[in-house]
């Protein structure tokens, strides 16, 4: 095929090219004043009708050619251009062979496409995905699998005067009846968007039969494309695997963008599941897209959501920021660890501690200055009796011989010892009883307390 040739009544008007054509060469053509797109298949080759030989290789070639013709004619018969709702399907108008080569013809259309659908606002994205979903539903309702669903085969366009972008679905060359695909050696598609069962079928490992290749193959690809159209990227997967399908088939979960709404995260997760039967039908997909907010990206506050391994974005992504540690809290601009209280005496867990005392028993300053050790705080309070630091008095042992007990509601205070009476010698602290634990007191605290008591008695 070359420019100026007439093939099947179509005059070729452009230089043929293989750009994005796979196993085909294509060119523009005209016939009876109409403009067309002509595709020439590089394989299979059809044996000549006048070749009467009956060799094994010819029998195989004839069988492949019959299956190829039957598949394309079946798709054309089921997908008619005049079918209701077929306005966004670019369907073939002619299919024939000339010599040993097959050709397919469609009407020439504007093949321009929006490069960055993710730049659209949520309502535009919703309409775009719904038009694509309705086209696929039309296929699936008549038992047809597109078989090669990917961005290259979807034209995102906006007609003059139209309010929204819509999706036109093209290239049905690899389509087949659900459950009846071409053989593993003949089936085509794109491994980047292929489903796990399609990948296993291609490898012909015996784990998947043709009857298991259903419309769910398209649903898997649509799940990946939905993520792409909304965020600008495909879901990430473990790089040990060559494709998203291979990762899912190995039991790994795809990493979805956490900016997606919770509803969309659930939808895409179910669409890209390993089990074909667990993927939603197109009716469910369309019903989910009933509200534009579903297609809006959620600019989540860093730390408000801790994604699972399956949904964690790559480092430095748009949802960046670290989740605050649950062991820290903020008070008056200062961060304290879980073993301290805030300046108001409230512990991070929300319980109230004694004023100026940490939950571990250490004394804390009422200001926002640096933390001091237990010994330093005690020495500071001992050196400034009655000072403004607000430090508590040094705790004393539960029982001190020679010291009068304090007054209670039902017992008056015992008169103090006469000033000229020498203070009794301090005996060793008795062991604590089993019922009341003895308070912890450092040697420094006891000595400081004795000096202060002696000084108070001497002054009186």
TrEMBL record:
<keyword id="KW-0808">Transferase</keyword>
<feature type="region of interest" description="Disordered">
    <location>
        <begin position="293"/>
        <end position="460"/>
    </location>
</feature>
<feature type="compositionally biased region" description="Pro residues">
    <location>
        <begin position="413"/>
        <end position="434"/>
    </location>
</feature>
<dbReference type="GO" id="GO:0005524">
    <property type="term" value="F:ATP binding"/>
</dbReference>
<protein>
    <submittedName>
        <fullName>Serine/threonine protein kinase</fullName>
    </submittedName>
</protein>
<feature type="compositionally biased region" description="Low complexity">
    <location>
        <begin position="328"/>
        <end position="372"/>
    </location>
</feature>
<keyword id="KW-0418">Kinase</keyword>
<dbReference type="InterPro" id="IPR008271">
    <property type="entry name" value="Ser/Thr_kinase_AS"/>
</dbReference>
<dbReference type="Pfam" id="PF00069">
    <property type="entry name" value="Pkinase"/>
</dbReference>
<dbReference type="InterPro" id="IPR011009">
    <property type="entry name" value="Kinase-like_dom_sf"/>
</dbReference>
<dbReference type="GO" id="GO:0004674">
    <property type="term" value="F:protein serine/threonine kinase activity"/>
</dbReference>
<feature type="domain" description="Protein kinase">
    <location>
        <begin position="1"/>
        <end position="294"/>
    </location>
</feature>
<keyword id="KW-0723">Serine/threonine-protein kinase</keyword>
<dbReference type="InterPro" id="IPR000719">
    <property type="entry name" value="Prot_kinase_dom"/>
</dbReference>
<feature type="compositionally biased region" description="Basic and acidic residues">
    <location>
        <begin position="448"/>
        <end position="460"/>
    </location>
</feature>
<dbReference type="GO" id="GO:0005737">
    <property type="term" value="C:cytoplasm"/>
</dbReference>
């Amino acid at each position: 095929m070359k420019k100026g040739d007439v093939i099947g009544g179509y005059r070729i008007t452009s230089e043929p090219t293989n750009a994005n054509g796979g196993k085909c060469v294509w060119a523009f053509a005209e016939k009876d004043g109409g403009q067309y797109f002509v595709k020439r298949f590089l394989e299979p080759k059809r044996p000549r009708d006048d070749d009467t030989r009956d060799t094994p290789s010819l029998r195989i070639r004839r069988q492949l050619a019959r299956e190829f013709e039957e598949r394309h004619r079946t798709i054309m018969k089921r997908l008619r251009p005049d079918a209701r709702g077929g306005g966004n399907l670019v369907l073939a108008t002619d299919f024939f062979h000339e010599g040993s080569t097959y050709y397919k013809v469609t009407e020439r259309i504007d093949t321009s496409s929006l490069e960055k659908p993710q730049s659209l606002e949520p309502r535009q994205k919703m309409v775009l995905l719904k038009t694509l979903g309705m086209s696929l539903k039309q296929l699936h309702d008549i038992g047809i699998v597109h078989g090669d669903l990917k961005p290259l085969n979807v034209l995102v366009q906006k007609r003059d005067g139209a309010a929204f972008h819509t999706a036109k679905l093209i290239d049905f060359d690899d389509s087949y009846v659900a459950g009846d695909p071409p053989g593993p050696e003949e089936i085509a598609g794109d491994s980047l968007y292929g489903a796990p069962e399609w990948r296993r079928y291609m490898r012909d490992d015996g784990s998947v039969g043709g009857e298991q290749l259903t419309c769910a193959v398209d649903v898997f690809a649509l799940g990946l494309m939905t993520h792409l159209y909304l965020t600008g990227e495909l879901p990430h997967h473990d790089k040990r695997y060559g494709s998203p399908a291979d990762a899912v088939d190995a039991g790994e979960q795809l990493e979805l963008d956490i900016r997606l709404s919770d509803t969309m995260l659930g939808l895409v997760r179910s669409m890209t599941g390993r089990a074909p039967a667990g993927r939603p039908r197109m009716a469910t997909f369309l019903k989910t897209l009933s509200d534009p907010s579903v297609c809006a990206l959620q600019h989540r506050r860093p730390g408000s959501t801790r994604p699972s391994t399956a949904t964690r974005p790559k480092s430095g992504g748009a949802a960046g920021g670290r989740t605050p540690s649950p062991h820290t809290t903020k008070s008056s601009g200062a961060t304290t660890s879980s073993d301290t209280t805030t300046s108001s005496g409230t512990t991070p867990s929300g319980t109230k501690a004694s004023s100026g005392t940490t939950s571990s028993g250490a004394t804390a300053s009422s200001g926002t200055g640096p933390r001091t050790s237990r010994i330093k705080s005690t020495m500071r309070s001992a050196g400034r009796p009655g000072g403004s630091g607000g430090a508590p008095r040094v705790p004393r042992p539960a029982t001190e011989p020679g010291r009068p007990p304090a007054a209670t509601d039902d017992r008056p205070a015992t008169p103090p010892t006469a000033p000229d009476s020498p203070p009794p010698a301090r005996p060793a602290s008795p062991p604590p009883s089993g019922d009341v634990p003895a308070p912890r007191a450092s040697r420094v605290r006891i000595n400081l307390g004795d000096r202060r008591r002696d000084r108070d008695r001497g002054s009186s």
